Amino acid sequence: MRGSKGFILVEVLVALMVLAVGFTTLFSLMGQQRRFLYTTEKRYRDMLTLTDKLAEGRWDELQVKERSIEEYPGIKEVTVRLGDAEIYLYTR
User: Fold this and answer.
1) What is the pLDDT of residue 30?
2) 10-residue block means of pLDDT along the chain (92 residues)?
3) CB 66 within 8 A of CB 78
């Protein structure tokens, strides 16, 4: 009986298929994380800009929506929005 000196073709093909599936999954996850990072960075930048504009009193470029709250008469909810960032303010 002769000893084996290497791998047979089927073993090599199975190993390549396992690697291909692993790399496909890895690259897919990396793409999802990249999109998530982009949206998070954009929302963070919008939030910084929004808070700066509110602190400086520049409301002209902001989307402002006001509504009264039925459960609490006399209290208004003011939604201030810029891009993906939103801040809720409650006033009397």
Assistant:
1) 94
2) 74 94 95 94 95 91 91 92 92 88
3) yes
Structure-token match 């929302």, residue found: 43
Can you tell me the distance from the alpha carbon of 20 to that of 18, in angstroms, rounded to the nearest whole number? Answer: 5
| Structure tokens given for 8 | 């047979």
Provide the residue range defining the domain that includes 25.
9-91
Whole-angstrom distance, CA of residue 65 vs CA of residue 2:
83
- At residue 61, the pLDDT reads 86
Structural domains counted in the chain: 1
DSSP H or E run through 68: strand 63-68
**What pTM was computed for the model?**
0.64
SS (H, E, C) 25-63: HHHHHHHHHHHHHHHHHHHHHHHHHHHHHHHHCCCCCCE
Residue 1 inside a domain? The answer is no
63 forms bridges with which residues in the sheet?
81
